């Protein structure tokens, strides 16, 4: 703990202040010997941003804190606020502070790979958390099976369209996020094999930026003369952007839209009928998986992995823990509540109370 405070004062004072100014918080804690992690050294985690999805600060951070505390591992969690330079600066500071394991959610593969290379040269083990760094050198990749995420989204869209002939637009996630490629690929494998569906537009949204998504979707909608019957949106934030344009055109609720992350807003849109499905990925499961792998690496043990993930850029198969995502519609929204993924009280607040009772909750 002493070392941490010294570090914050001397080494990363710039970053720390910058992050405070942006409203982000860093979070550092020592928790000795309370579980299997005793003596495991310190784990650093760098989250990507606060805007591409609310999940990182509202779900991943608390789940990670809980996982490390339960394991009795010293940790520090910071957020790069969407800047690869900031992520690099934070990583340098964490390495200087003596982390033995560094986990990152990269903002793009190139910056992620440089961070990992530097870490490895200092004897620090690295983990790709949620996003695979192409051409990187992470010892392990911890995530969900992201191709399955995409397949669930594609199947969800097909089911919501109910077999009627349909023009569909694809709004993909950030081109720099390997997950976005996997999500889109998984969704295409289902949608492209459905003869009643015609794809009439497709674009990726830089940095998963919800504001740009509004403009991009409006252009795609206009280019298709408004003849859009369904939308693949890669996460709940992008779904919200799509729904705003559908509302403007008085089509919200008639055009099924997909999503991902089971956010409060996404679940509320599902209750309201403006979004057709989302994908639930338990933050607790992912955080616990990260903690297990981090502890093993810190102790010089072989982490337990369940799969490998192909990195064509680096021409290697990365040992991975890939968890199983769940498709959520109005019919099984309770799955998210029962698992503690969101609090029912929060989702079913205000105007949504009635919709929750109508949906049998
Ligand atoms: C994550 C999604 C998230 C998106 C935007 C992806 O890499 O897997 O859960 O919605 O990034 O942050």
UniProtKB/TrEMBL annotation:
Keywords carried by this UniProt record: Signal
Occurrences of domain Periplasmic binding protein (ranges): 44-302
Domain of life from the UniProt record: Bacteria
Name assigned to this protein: Monosaccharide ABC transporter substrate-binding protein, CUT2 family [Blastococcus saxobsidens DD2]
One Gene Ontology term of the molecular function aspect: carbohydrate binding
Pfam families for this protein: Peripla_BP_4 (PF13407)
Signal peptide from the UniProt entry: 1-21
Subcellular location(s) per record: Cell envelope
Organism field: Mycolicibacterium parafortuitum (Mycobacterium parafortuitum)
SUPFAM superfamilies: Periplasmic binding protein-like I
GO CC field: outer membrane-bounded periplasmic space
């Amino acid at each position: 703990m002493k070392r941490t405070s010294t570090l914050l004062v001397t080494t990363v004072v710039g970053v720390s202040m910058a992050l405070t100014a942006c409203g982000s918080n860093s979070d550092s804690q020592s928790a000795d010997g309370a579980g299997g992690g005793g003596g495991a050294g310190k784990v650093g985690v760098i989250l990507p941003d606060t805007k591409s999805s609310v999940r990182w600060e509202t779900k991943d951070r608390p789940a990670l804190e809980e996982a490390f505390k339960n394991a009795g591992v010293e940790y520090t969690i910071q957020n790069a606020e969407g800047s690869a330079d900031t992520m690099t600066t934070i990583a340098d500071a964490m390495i200087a502070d003596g982390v033995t394991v560094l986990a990152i959610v990269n903002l793009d593969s190139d910056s992620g790979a440089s961070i990992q290379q530097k870490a490895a040269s200092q004897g620090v083990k690295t983990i790709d958390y949620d996003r695979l760094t192409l051409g990187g050198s992470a010892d392990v990749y911890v995530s969900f099976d992201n191709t399955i995420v995409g397949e669930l989204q594609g199947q969800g869209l097909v089911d919501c369209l109910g077999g009627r002939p349909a023009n569909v637009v694809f709004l993909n996630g950030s081109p720099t996020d390997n997950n976005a490629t996997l999500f889109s690929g998984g969704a295409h494998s289902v949608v492209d094999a459905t003869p009643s569906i015609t794809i009439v537009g497709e674009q990726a949204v830089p940095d998963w930026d919800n504001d740009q998504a509004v403009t991009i979707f409006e252009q795609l909608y206009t280019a298709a003369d408004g003849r859009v019957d369904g939308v693949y949106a890669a996460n709940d934030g992008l779904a919200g952007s799509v729904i705003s344009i559908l509302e403007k055109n008085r089509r919200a609720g008639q055009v099924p839209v997909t999503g991902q992350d089971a956010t409060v807003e996404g679940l509320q849109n599902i209750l309201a009928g403006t979004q057709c499905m989302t994908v639930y990925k338990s933050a607790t499961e992912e955080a616990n998986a990260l903690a297990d792998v981090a502890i093993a690496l810190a102790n010089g043990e072989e982490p337990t992995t369940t799969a490998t993930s192909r990195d064509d850029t680096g021409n290697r198969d990365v040992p991975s823990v890939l968890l199983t995502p769940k498709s959520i519609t109005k019919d099984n929204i309770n799955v998210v509540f029962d698992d503690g993924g969101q609090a029912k009280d929060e989702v079913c607040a205000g105007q949504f109370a009635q919709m929750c009772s109508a949906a049998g909750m």
